[in-house]
Amino acid sequence: MFDPLSLVVGAGLLGAGWALGRAGRRRGRSGAQSPGPCGCGHDLALHDRETGTCHAEIFRKTGHGLKEWTGCRCRRYTGPTPLEDVFTSPILPPNP
User: Domain check: are 81 and 40 in the same one?
Assistant: First the structure.
């Protein structure tokens, strides 16, 4: 009814896949998460174009296991330049 050799080979493949999956996940978590375009992980849409401040909120630990929403401390967008800024200059609002 069941072929014992096939069951052993299948169990071996299952165990090898499980072990490789566990090892791959741990390797990815050990390094720091890669930051986004501005260093804080937020896109250009969340940054003010004139002042450069970030308007996003971050969930941070405050101590003793407590968490709260605080403003992002990023002060400048350092990601790639948008295509509309490369080919055309902004028309509105006019600079006096």
Answer: yes
